[in-house]
Design brief:
87 residues; alpha+beta; Rossmann fold; two-stranded parallel sheet; 33% helix; 9% strand
Length: 87
C-alpha cells in the first residue's frame, strides 16, 4: 500500500514509484547467516524449487529504470520464482 499510495501522491510531479518484490535470493550473506541444515532446502519454498540468483533480479530493476516503463507506477513487480510460502 505504501508503494501505491506514494505513486498516487507523486504522480502529479511526474515521479513514478514502483517496487521489486524478491523471493528467496542466494547471496554470499546466506551461508553464514543460516544453520547448515537449513541451507539444504533454502529456496525450496519457491514454486520453481530453488532460490534465485542476483542476476535474475537485475532485469526487473533495469526495466523499472528504463524508458520501457514510463507508464508503470504503483506496481509491485514480483520476482520470486513463484513464492508459495513465507514461513
Amino acid at each position: 500500500m505504501f508503494t501505491k499510495s506514494l505513486a498516487v501522491n507523486l504522480a502529479d510531479r511526474k515521479i513514478r514509484v514502483n517496487a521489486v518484490v524478491p523471493g528467496p535470493v542466494w547471496t554470499p550473506a546466506i551461508p553464514p547467516s543460516s544453520p547448515p541444515e537449513a541451507l539444504k532446502s533454502w529456496g525450496n519454498i519457491a514454486a520453481l524449487g530453488r532460490s534465485g540468483q542476483p542476476e535474475e533480479l537485475a532485469p526487473a530493476y533495469v526495466f523499472l529504470g528504463s524508458n520501457d516503463s514510463t507508464f508503470v507506477t504503483g506496481s509491485l513487480l514480483e520476482v520470486s520464482g513463484g513464492l508459495i510460502s513465507v514461513e
